[in-house]
Amino acid sequence: MTDEERYELVQLRKENAQRTLCKAKLMLDNSYWNGAVNRMYYACFYAVTALLIQHGIKAQTHSGVRQMLSFYFVKTGKLSPLNMRFYSDLFAARQDGDYDDFVYFDQEVTERLYPLCIDFVDTINKLIKETAL
């Protein structure tokens, strides 16, 4: 992948993160709690993958994305462990909401998560900007 192609892919993933946050808000506003949690996770996932792509870091799975984020950015002090904890917890919540028939998120939980997602995506975007090639 050329530097130009990498740049374009990073921009696309960042845009996907923002669009997906908007979808999460629509679901939140219409009481689709599990769907909102799903979209919040994916907004964060797209932001993280943009960061990894920018640095040429490959991951094949969602777990791999989390591992690479931890290894290259948390362990090096570029991203706080609290941000990593949030992302891992959100991943687990999305998994539960998507695959466990008896997990139903409620308004309180979902509304608490939304601003944290916005902060997480903003933090990743700042890191992308700070570490631009």
The largest sheet, given as strand count, sense and whether it forms a barrel, is: none
Radius of gyration: 15 Å
The SS-based structural class is: mainly alpha
Annotated CATH topology: Four Helix Bundle (Hemerythrin (Met), subunit A)
SSE succession = HHHHH
Identify the overall geometry: globular
Proportion of helical residues? over 70%
Separation of the first and last Cα atoms: 14 Å
Question: What's the CATH first level?
Answer: Mainly Alpha
Mean pLDDT: 95
- Unreliable spans are none
How many strands appear in the DSSP assignment?
0
Number of domains: 1
Number of helices: 5
For this structure, what is the CATH homologous superfamily? Answer: Nucleotidyltransferases  domain 2
CATH architecture: Up-down Bundle
User: Roughly what fraction of the amino acids lie in strands?
Assistant: under 5%
Please supply descriptive tags for the structure shown above.
single chain, 133 residues, mainly alpha, Four Helix Bundle (Hemerythrin (Met), subunit A), 5 helices, globular
Write the layout of secondary structure elements.
Blueprint: H1 3-29, H2 33-54, H3 62-74, H4 81-99, H5 107-130
Helix pairs in contact: 1-2, 1-5, 2-3, 2-4, 2-5, 3-4
